[in-house]
Amino acid sequence: xxxxxxxxxxxRGELVTGTVDxxxxxxxxxxxxxxxxxxxxxxxxxxxxxxxxxxxLKRLFAPRVxxxxxxxxxxxxxxLLKAGVPIMRALAGLQESAMNPTLREVIADLRxxxxxxxxxxxxMQRHPxxxxxxxxxxxxxxxxTGQLEDAFNRxxxxxxxxxxxxxxxxxxxRYPIIVIVVIAAAVTIVNFAVIPAFAKLFxxxxxxxxxxxxxxxxxxxxxxxxxxxxVLGIAAAIAGFITYTRTKGGRYAWDRAKxxxxxxxxxxxxxxxxxxxxxxxLASGAGVPIVQAMTVVAAVVDNAYLSQRIEAMREGVERxxxxxxTAVAAGVFTPVVLQMIAVGEETGELDDLLxxxxxxxxxxxxxxxxxLSAAIEPIITIALGVLVLMLALGIxxxxxxxxxxxxxxx
Length: 410
Fold this sequence. Notes:
Blueprint: E1 3-9, E2 15-21, H1 25-34, E3 38-44, H2 56-61, H3 67-82, H4 87-97, H5 101-115, H6 120-124, H7 133-145, H8 148-205, H9 211-245, H10 248-258, H11 264-285, H12 290-300, H13 304-318, H14 323-330, H15 335-347, H16 350-370, H17 372-409
Antiparallel strand pairs: 1-2, 1-3
Helix pairs in contact: 3-4, 3-8, 4-5, 7-8, 8-9, 8-11, 8-16, 8-17, 9-17, 11-12, 11-16, 12-13, 13-14, 14-15, 15-16
């Protein structure tokens, strides 16, 4: 966003100067007039060295502001503003108490921006890595309605839900990931050390080998001969997949495919719809118009496929269609949710009923995440059992033949 330098007169006729981030000079003039400053001169200015983005090296080693820290910042802002603490004093206190140096710099920049006459939402917009577009939109509505502390409280609840879902998913996947890593390590050791040793033993005694043993020995020989190419191939496949999913079409295809993954797909869908319902309820309850709320929420769901579905809903609402009709056309909501949307539109309490939808999805996600390990464990157990059975039969069947040959020789 361009930076404009301005000169103006305040209510007492005193000359004031500063810089403002805005889309054009008209937006700068509107912002100054809203703050009681009559603009005299507005021109494009380069950001100062202090305001420029940090260098690549600094960004590389700077600690990131976590979701927990952003949620805590929101909760502290709500508490301080509700207690009647002026916003500049509240930010000063939070800057001194912040343990993360990156967050401390962000808060310092917020204070500098407010000193220069910018609004808090405009100042937050300068830090998209900390404050999302949705976060900034809710804060902007809070400023416009005079309910900034309530906006921070709503944002705290939303970020807490996000944190809890992520932590539960990590906790549920920790055991399966550990088991899969151990199995992969075991397969590697067996192919590189165990099977070659037995292959030499079988070759020395010249016993006929069953098909399963020949397959295991062939697989081991392939690993030994081509493991560098396999490692390069896996690395290239991972890099290609990451590159593809970073494209617009690739991300859309992957986000759509994720929803069809067995066991995990329904959980991802419900968690995303819970995020949509909570964010839409929050934005609507804060006074954001429905069309604008859908535009903001489409960027919040973090799924390109569902984001496109929500964008289609927004376009339908712009054409004059009801939210219910556009939700039915989206094809991602359950009949129960569609009924609640219908009632919400009829009663004018769409934000409250969408909050109920979010609560329902959150409870379902919580229940399914708790049972995720129980659903994955049988699959892992069966896979491990098949692997052990193949190794046992492939190795020990020839060993029995060797034993019989040795007995016959005696």
